[in-house]
Each structure stands twice: as structure tokens, then as C-alpha cells.
Write a structure and sequence with these properties.
single chain; mainly alpha; 357 residues
Length: 357
Amino acid sequence: MLYQLFYLHHMVPALNVFRYITFRSIYATLTALAFALLMGPLLIRALRRLQIGQEVRDDGPQSHLSKKGTPTMGGVLITGSLLFSVLLWADLTNRYVWMVVASFLANGAIGFADDYLKVVRKRSKGLSARQKFSLQIGVALLLSLWFMSSLPGDTRIVVPFFKTLNPALGVFFLPFLVLVLVGTANAVNLTDGLDGLAIGPTIVVSLSFVVISYLVGHHLFAAYLKILEVPGAGELAVVMGAMVGAALGFLWFNTYPAQVFMGDTGSLAIGGAIGMAAIITRQELLLLIVGGVFVAEALSVILQVGSYKLRKKRIFRMAPIHHHFELGGVSEPKVIVRFWIVSVVLALIALSTFKLR
């Protein structure tokens, strides 16, 4: 919306600043943050009034029992903050902006349906695993086909640490993209188990993709770094900047002890947006590094379930892995902050790969 003001720069030269992605990314972040801080208390009061509270597993850490009834479905705050900021600051003629927003909203809608059934309709399991995965795969398939239509025939992927290793996947490209989208959404969802645990890495990963989007969308930087250029992808820096702001605002209320939880409404939406940003920037494999905390959480569940089914033995005290550390005696705040630190380290390593190739 405000992006269009730069067309009037011949009348008011100062309006030319709205043309710059860096400027709009910064203010998209600040706008989303301000929106979340202003609307957060209103949402929390509304959720309490409607008695939309978190259910807590009785087989988990005993310290979590006190969290029962804490307002959930706070992902609505992240959604509103991001959308308001994107509509205000992004170039709405850019198709990549809409791809990320569509992935964000579609996955968020699945999460909302799951939360609604669990919390409002009191169906303990919400959507069944089959229903949830079917919806996620359907959404991922449509989004992947939409993206592939923007680069017909180009099925290359970028391998981190290698300049010219960009293998083409051919017919396997579509299932690969679907796997990235579904996997990322569920990995973020599994990470959301402690106060502020998922939103911390979300901020780090989103900030990383602000940088990555700008680099791959900038002709000179892409040429200098010898990375795949994606014309138009630079505008995603504005979208991911809005994600950073929305996440920071949500963290204000979600930090330990949390006043509100994001629920599947937020975690699936965040994962959908991050996964789509990784696909558009052609950095799907780099996401394994920059989002390493999410990957570790998902792998811990996969390994735990696989081990128990095959050997009737557990690898971890409890999965996802953050519960393993809690049951081992590490306090919740310490687990959270240490996971944040790991996320920052992984993000720095991921960004360094643009030179270490």
C-alpha cells in the first residue's frame, strides 16, 4: 500500500524512500511489533472471557500442570500483526509475497480448525492425524504447483557449501517441495511445547530469511556470491520482517511464564510461511541448518516413535526433545534460552555458507 507512494517521488522526492526494500523491511518489523503489543492484551482478555484455555497432558512434566487454562489460539495475534504489516508495506503486485501469505493463512486455518475442535468443541484430539496430514498435503501440493508455474522446467535445488552443485530433481521436485512445506509446518508445531520456545527460533529463522531473501533477489549480490538469483524474491524480506515483528510482539506475552500460547493456529502458520520462503529463495536444504532446532524437535519424535514400535524401547525420556531435558532436571527457562542460543549459532553458520563454498 505505502509502497505505491514512491510513484509520487517526482512530486515529493522524500517519498522515494518507499521504493527501498531495506527501509520497508525495517518498518514492516516495527509495524507488526506495535500491532501485536497493542492488540495482545485485548486478545488475551477475550480468550479468557471465552474460556479458551490450554489443556495439559498429565503424563508430562508436573510443572506444566499449573499452565492448564492459560489462553491459547494466540496465533491469531501473529496472523493479524503480520497481515496488517504486509498489506501496509509490501509490494502487493509481487506474486511471491502472496505465495508466502497463502501458505501462512492456509496452514494457519488448519491449525485453527484443530485448536477450535480441541479447545472450544472439547474434542480432545481435534483433527485426526489423517485429516490434518491430508489437508496439509493438499495445501502443500497446490502451493508447490503454483510456485513451479513461476519457473517452468527449473527443478534445481541448492546444496549448501557448494557453488555449482545444483542438482535437478526432475519429477521428484514436486514431492520434495510438498515434503518441505509439510515437514516445516509440523516441525514448528512440535517445537511449541514450552513458553517462548518456538517463537524464539521463529524470530531467528525469519530474520535470517530477511537477509537471504534480499541477497537472492538482488542481482549484484547474487552475482557476487555466485548464488541462484530469484528476481522478485527480495520483496520477501518485507514479509519476513513482518514475521520478525509479529513474533517479537507475541513473545512479549508468551515469554515465561506465558500469558498466552500460540496453539496450532500460530505454529502451523509460521511453519507454512517459513517453508514457503525457503522454497521461493531456493534454500530448502539450508533450512535444515538455519531451522536446526525445529529439525531436531521433529527428528526426536520420529526416532522415539520408530524406536518404540520396533524395539519397544524409548530413546528419550519424553519426546519432543525439550521434554527430555526437562525430565532430566533442567529448568524450563534454561531449556528455552539454551535452545534460543543454539538457534542463533545455527543461523550464523547457515548465513556463512554463502561465502564458505
